[in-house]
Amino acid sequence: MEGFGDDAPAAHPADRIQAWARAFRGWALANPEGFRLIYGDPVPGYQAPEGGAAPDAAHRVCTGIAALADAAWPHTGRLHARSDFQWSDFDAGLLGKVRPAFPELPPAGVALALRIWGHLHGLVSLEIYGHLRTQTVNPDKLFHEELAQLVRSLGVEPEE
To answer: pLDDT at residue 53 above 80?
Structure first.
């Protein structure tokens, strides 16, 4: 998922978040088997090799989202001033990628990146696995409204 939203202006974090989210959902809807392979339940009995590619892939996705959090941080950091997150709260492999890339992003910014990912991944997962079919006739509308609420909660407004 690296590269999602890279065409959005860097000066507008809401637009970058929305572009990344739309690209992530678009990829998932176009490649549901790939989405399930990457994010679904593990194959019964399969044990991933120690130090395998899965944690690294997750770290790359989170690092990409950390770029979004880093862009939003000047606008949203004040909302997290009382955050209790410490660097020790995060996986060393993730920090090995995020901290050099975004040296000014505090631990609360890494938590923000994970929360952004959780919002977006959650709705996409519900849609891919068919759980929204009996809940809404328009999952697209639900996704875009959730996305709009997410960026507003960050204290940024899209330029679009």
So the answer is: no
